[in-house]
Amino acid sequence: MNISHCLPHKITVLFTPIIILAAFSNLHAQDSVEFLNGASVQGVVREIRNDQREFDFQVQAGGRSYVRTYPFDKVHAVVRNGTRFVLTPKAGSSDTATGSDTSRDLGEREVQRIIEQAGNTPPDWFASTPLDYPKTLDLAWPLKPANDGWDNQRNMGQYLWDVIYPNPHRWRPGLRLVHFLLQQHQNQPALRERDQKTLADMYFKLLQDYPRAAYWFQQSGVRPGDPDAVILAECYWRIGSRKMAMEMLDSRTLPLQAVKLLGDLKETATAVRLAELYAQQGRPHEAY
Questions:
Q1: Tens of pLDDT along 158-193?
Q2: If we measure between CA atoms, which residue out of 179, 182, 172, 174 comes closest to residue 158?
Q3: Which residues pair with 197 in a beta bridge?
Q4: Fold of 11-21+103-287
Q5: Which of 30, 39, 55, 127 is buried most, with the most CB atoms less than 10 Å from its CB?
Q6: pTM of the entire structure?
């Protein structure tokens, strides 16, 4: 099972991209939310809905408990157990996620240097992260596993979906495991490409490590027009090159997820046209 992306049907337009924001899990300590207007509130994050780009936050006030729902794009940052996740950088702020600086306009050579340096260097946490996984897990991870029902202790894709992605404390061990599987699959091109795209997806979605996400997408051979070109374009933009992002988006087939990044890239007319096309296809709630 390839969980990297489940993109909708494509339609014809001019460009492509996506913004996938941070994924958390249930937070049990005192957390805090920092809003774009400078206000902040303390409480506990209760539920995150990444597909809808929003999360529920529980606060105490007047002796009562309340749960509020906040969209990602209205929140500057979330602090969880002392770790700060930037969701929406403030205009002119240098406070961004790993490898992200949209205020710069770097040349292709410099962007590629950043990507290759990150991709060829293990993260600082890598050596100290144990290779920990259920002994029942099928490390062969075939592209089409046997249809034996749902078993997240045997099926690798289901293990990532159920156990790794929803739990922040498992993100690094999960990445360590996929790196290990990639080593095992070096002589199996189809599995190797799937592993590379999975690593890219995890570095992007879970850690917002844009250089390493870009590196693994490049290694997998992503080109303009591919579904994953959406996220690779996002990586280029976050690293510092709008030009490279737009080049990666130079395709006539666009998924719905392109709307948000097109807006961020100031391609407003194209973003609106794409949203309208999906709305005409009967998907207005997704488009807007």
A1: 999 999 998 989 999 999 999 999 999 999 999 999
A2: 174
A3: none
A4: 1.25.40
A5: 55
A6: 0.66
